[in-house]
Amino acid sequence: MRIRQQSWWMGMCGLAGATAVAMGAWAAHGMASRLPPEAVAIVQLAVQYQLWHALALGLVVVLAQRAPCSRSLCVAGWAFVAGLWLFCGSLYLLALAGVKALGWLTPCGGLALMLGWVCLLVHGVTASGRGWRNSQPDPGHNDANIG
């Protein structure tokens, strides 16, 4: 995985986190008087998913620094980015603009988010060839050298 790709993902992580906080604040303070409660609830759901998956994308970047050639991390990163846009974006469109025609994107985004988590699981199980069978630390690994 290239440094440029990791930087792009970290940028997306920051953008998703910042917009999630902004949307959450707006939902809590400014939106309630302008939109029906159902729309506010949809925005709050999108905010929660967006914030958690922004953090997951940041985790992918951190893990990719230790395993830059991991295919599972590469797929996880792209799956989280796609899932954030599709799942959260379609919920925002539904709540704020009443666009129901793109409702089919929500489950597609949900599947992408799940794929991201499954890829993190695969990476965790297969990283350094140890998997779950041998939980003993690698004698050649020194966490003090991270950085």
Give a verbal description of the structure.
Keywords: Membrane, Transmembrane, Transmembrane helix. Its main location: membrane. The longest helix is centred in the middle third of the chain and has 30 residues, at 37-66. It is built from four helices and no strands. The chain has one domain. It starts with a helix and ends in a 21-residue tail after the last helix. Helix 2 (37-66) runs antiparallel to helix 3. The protein is elongated. The model is unreliable at 131-135 (pLDDT under 50). It is mainly α.
Count of individual domains: 1
- Structural category is mainly alpha
Report the oligomer. Answer: single chain
Rg estimate, integer Å? 18 Å
What percent of residues are in strands? under 5%
**What are the segments in which pLDDT stays under 50 over at least 5 consecutive residues?**
131-135
Number of helices: 4
The termini sit apart by 18 Å
**Average pLDDT level:** 88
Tell me the major beta sheet: none
Summarize the amount of helix as a percent range.
over 70%
Instruction: Label the overall shape.
Output: elongated
> How would you spell out the order of helices and strands?
HHHH
Give a count of the beta strands, DSSP E runs of length 2 or more. 0
Membrane topology: Multi-pass membrane protein
Protein name: DUF423 domain-containing protein
InterPro entries: DUF423
Keywords: Membrane, Transmembrane, Transmembrane helix
